[in-house]
Protein backbone atom coordinates (compact mmCIF):
# COMPACT_ATOMS: atom_id res chain seq x y z
CA UNK A 1 0.00 0.00 0.00
CA UNK A 2 1.14 3.53 -0.74
CA UNK A 3 2.31 5.85 2.00
CA UNK A 4 -0.40 8.45 2.61
CA UNK A 5 -1.84 10.80 5.17
CA UNK A 6 -5.37 9.65 4.34
CA UNK A 7 -7.44 10.28 7.46
CA UNK A 8 -11.18 9.68 7.90
CA UNK A 9 -13.21 11.95 10.21
CA UNK A 10 -16.84 12.80 10.93
CA UNK A 11 -18.38 16.03 12.18
CA UNK A 12 -21.60 14.07 12.84
CA UNK A 13 -20.21 11.84 15.54
CA UNK A 14 -19.87 12.88 19.18
CA UNK A 15 -16.25 11.89 19.63
CA UNK A 16 -16.30 8.12 19.30
CA UNK A 17 -20.05 7.82 19.94
CA UNK A 18 -22.79 7.59 17.30
CA UNK A 19 -25.73 9.90 18.16
CA UNK A 20 -29.16 8.21 18.03
CA UNK A 21 -30.32 10.18 14.97
CA UNK A 22 -27.96 8.01 12.88
CA UNK A 23 -29.42 4.75 14.28
CA UNK A 24 -32.59 2.65 14.21
CA UNK A 25 -33.68 4.61 17.29
CA UNK A 26 -33.66 7.88 15.33
CA UNK A 27 -33.99 9.06 11.73
CA UNK A 28 -31.40 6.49 10.58
CA UNK A 29 -29.66 8.97 8.31
CA UNK A 30 -26.01 8.52 7.42
CA UNK A 31 -23.37 10.50 9.29
CA UNK A 32 -21.12 12.95 7.47
CA UNK A 33 -17.76 11.43 6.62
CA UNK A 34 -14.82 13.41 5.26
CA UNK A 35 -11.23 12.58 4.42
CA UNK A 36 -7.89 14.20 3.67
CA UNK A 37 -5.78 14.07 0.53
CA UNK A 38 -5.46 10.60 -0.96
CA UNK A 39 -2.25 9.21 -2.42
CA UNK A 40 -1.23 10.01 -5.97
CA UNK A 41 -2.86 7.65 -8.45
CA UNK A 42 -6.21 7.44 -6.64
CA UNK A 43 -8.96 6.88 -9.23
CA UNK A 44 -11.85 6.22 -6.84
CA UNK A 45 -12.82 5.54 -3.24
CA UNK A 46 -14.93 2.84 -1.62
CA UNK A 47 -16.49 2.84 1.83
CA UNK A 48 -17.66 -0.11 3.89
CA UNK A 49 -19.23 0.26 7.35
CA UNK A 50 -19.67 -2.78 9.58
CA UNK A 51 -20.70 -3.75 13.10
CA UNK A 52 -17.49 -5.07 14.64
CA UNK A 53 -19.31 -6.79 17.50
CA UNK A 54 -21.71 -8.89 15.44
CA UNK A 55 -20.62 -12.42 14.66
CA UNK A 56 -20.58 -11.77 10.90
CA UNK A 57 -19.41 -8.11 10.89
CA UNK A 58 -22.91 -7.01 9.83
CA UNK A 59 -22.63 -4.56 6.91
CA UNK A 60 -24.35 -1.19 7.35
CA UNK A 61 -23.09 0.66 4.27
CA UNK A 62 -21.36 -0.12 0.98
CA UNK A 63 -20.42 2.74 -1.35
CA UNK A 64 -17.98 2.52 -4.25
CA UNK A 65 -16.80 4.40 -7.33
CA UNK A 66 -16.79 7.53 -5.21
CA UNK A 67 -15.06 10.09 -7.48
CA UNK A 68 -11.38 10.68 -6.74
CA UNK A 69 -11.92 14.44 -6.35
CA UNK A 70 -14.58 13.97 -3.69
CA UNK A 71 -13.60 14.47 -0.04
CA UNK A 72 -16.93 13.93 1.73
CA UNK A 73 -20.09 11.89 1.95
CA UNK A 74 -22.63 14.32 3.41
CA UNK A 75 -24.90 13.68 6.36
CA UNK A 76 -28.11 12.16 5.06
CA UNK A 77 -26.61 10.70 1.87
CA UNK A 78 -29.62 9.49 -0.18
CA UNK A 79 -30.37 5.76 0.05
CA UNK A 80 -30.26 4.99 -3.66
CA UNK A 81 -28.20 2.81 -6.02
CA UNK A 82 -26.40 5.70 -7.68
CA UNK A 83 -25.78 9.28 -6.58
CA UNK A 84 -25.64 12.19 -9.07
CA UNK A 85 -21.81 12.24 -9.01
CA UNK A 86 -21.61 8.56 -10.03
CA UNK A 87 -21.05 7.13 -6.55
CA UNK A 88 -22.71 3.73 -6.39
CA UNK A 89 -24.18 2.19 -3.26
CA UNK A 90 -24.46 -1.54 -2.82
CA UNK A 91 -26.74 -3.55 -0.58
CA UNK A 92 -26.22 -3.56 3.15
CA UNK A 93 -27.13 -6.58 5.29
CA UNK A 94 -30.61 -5.14 5.83
CA UNK A 95 -31.11 -5.79 2.09
CA UNK A 96 -31.30 -2.07 1.25
CA UNK A 97 -29.16 0.32 -0.77
CA UNK A 98 -27.15 2.94 1.07
CA UNK A 99 -26.77 3.42 4.79
CA UNK A 100 -28.56 1.34 7.42
CA UNK A 101 -28.15 2.63 10.95
CA UNK A 102 -26.78 0.74 13.94
CA UNK A 103 -29.33 -1.27 15.89
CA UNK A 104 -27.56 -3.39 18.52
CA UNK A 105 -29.52 -5.49 21.01
CA UNK A 106 -31.03 -3.59 23.95
CA UNK A 107 -28.57 -2.85 26.78
CA UNK A 108 -25.64 -3.59 24.47
CA UNK A 109 -22.82 -1.45 23.13
CA UNK A 110 -21.53 -2.24 19.66
CA UNK A 111 -18.59 -0.72 17.78
CA UNK A 112 -18.95 0.29 14.15
CA UNK A 113 -16.06 0.59 11.73
CA UNK A 114 -16.20 2.97 8.78
CA UNK A 115 -13.37 2.04 6.39
CA UNK A 116 -12.48 4.22 3.41
CA UNK A 117 -10.38 2.67 0.65
CA UNK A 118 -8.37 4.70 -1.89
CA UNK A 119 -8.20 2.67 -5.11
CA UNK A 120 -6.19 2.89 -8.33
CA UNK A 121 -9.28 2.17 -10.47
CA UNK A 122 -13.05 2.22 -10.47
CA UNK A 123 -14.77 -1.03 -9.52
CA UNK A 124 -16.78 -3.06 -12.01
CA UNK A 125 -19.63 -4.45 -9.93
CA UNK A 126 -23.32 -5.29 -10.38
CA UNK A 127 -25.79 -2.64 -9.14
CA UNK A 128 -26.74 -4.72 -6.09
CA UNK A 129 -23.15 -5.47 -5.03
CA UNK A 130 -22.43 -6.54 -1.48
CA UNK A 131 -19.43 -5.65 0.69
CA UNK A 132 -17.98 -9.11 0.10
CA UNK A 133 -18.15 -8.62 -3.68
CA UNK A 134 -16.63 -5.13 -3.43
CA UNK A 135 -13.76 -6.37 -1.27
CA UNK A 136 -13.06 -9.20 -3.70
CA UNK A 137 -12.88 -6.82 -6.68
CA UNK A 138 -10.63 -4.40 -4.73
CA UNK A 139 -7.83 -6.98 -4.52
CA UNK A 140 -4.80 -5.57 -6.30
CA UNK A 141 -6.27 -2.05 -6.49
CA UNK A 142 -5.93 -0.84 -2.89
CA UNK A 143 -3.57 2.09 -2.44
CA UNK A 144 -4.34 2.89 1.20
CA UNK A 145 -7.19 2.77 3.70
CA UNK A 146 -8.38 4.91 6.59
CA UNK A 147 -10.66 3.85 9.41
CA UNK A 148 -12.97 5.48 11.93
CA UNK A 149 -14.55 3.47 14.76
CA UNK A 150 -17.48 4.68 16.88
CA UNK A 151 -19.88 2.99 19.27
CA UNK A 152 -23.60 2.99 19.96
CA UNK A 153 -25.36 1.82 23.13
CA UNK A 154 -29.06 0.99 23.40
Automatic annotation (TrEMBL):
Spans annotated as Disordered: 69-98
The species this protein was found in: Tunturiibacter gelidiferens
Protein name: YbhB/YbcL family Raf kinase inhibitor-like protein
CDD domains in the cross-refs: PEBP_bact_arch
Biased composition range(s): Low complexity: 86-96
Gene3D superfamilies: PEBP-like
Amino acid sequence: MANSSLHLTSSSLAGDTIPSKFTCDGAEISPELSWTSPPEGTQSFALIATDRDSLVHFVHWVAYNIPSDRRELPEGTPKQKQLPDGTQQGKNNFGNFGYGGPCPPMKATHHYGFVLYALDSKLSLPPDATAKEALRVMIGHLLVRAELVASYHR
